[in-house]
Amino acid sequence: MPIRHLIFDLGNVLIDLDMAATEQRLQALLGDHFRASFARNEQEGLFEAFEKGLISEADFFAELRRLAKAGTTVEELKDAWNAMLLGFPLERLLWVEHLRKRGCHTYVLSNTNVTHLEWVYHHLDAEYGISNYEQRFFDKVWYSHQLHLRKPEPEIYRYVLEDAGLDPAETLFVDDNPANVAAARAAGIRALRNPPGTDVRQTLAPVLGELTTLR
Q1: Whose CB among 126, 173, 213, 214 lies 3.0–4.6 Å from 7's, allowing a Cys bridge?
Q2: Are 42 and 35 in contact (CB under 8 A)?
């Protein structure tokens, strides 16, 4: 069946990430309280709760500040938390816009949090004068902290399909995390992995002909 609906992850798909940058900055601020396995989410309880919107931004940074060295400010912790976000290349957004103009429905499904999302809004406005990226480039967006669900939980994929009325056989999901891709496939959605550091346009090159000929 043709692909009529394209769901993008944000990090390492549309937005460039450097997870090590945040790891290094937090390690400097938290010192002995920082766990070297941050990238593997050893502090999963705190990070996951924030990503699912189960705790507020204020409570999240208050807890990090409690663990941090004396004198560490919330702004320093926010800067460290956002250090992983390298940028949202305009050419990728314009490519998504092109796909929409050719008849493909485009969406975002992202595990994210209010702090990172505010950074995205500010970045797009400051760099490109774009203040309505969700409405301009996508038919709909779903963020984990708003849904209180996160990938790869099966419920989030079922919710997305039902909420947008999507046929999973006509839907392609693109994510950098193998577990998220596998969960999408288990829900019946066609899915591809975009490895970190790979341009998503390259990943989708084998199916671009199909996508760009949609009416």
Answers
A1: 173
A2: yes
Flag whether pLDDT at 214 surpasses 80: no
d(CA 128, CA 126): 6
Instruction: List 173's β-bridge partners, or say none.
Output: 7, 191
Tell me the CATH number of domain 5-16+87-212, given options 3.30.230.10, 1.20.1530.20, 3.40.50.1000, 3.40.50.2020: 3.40.50.1000
pLDDT of residue 40: 45
Q: Report whether 107 contacts 7 (CB < 8 A).
A: yes
Q: What digits encode the pLDDT tens for the residues 135-153?
A: 999 999 999 999 999 999 9
| Separation between Cα atoms, residue 125 and residue 131, nearest integer Å | 5
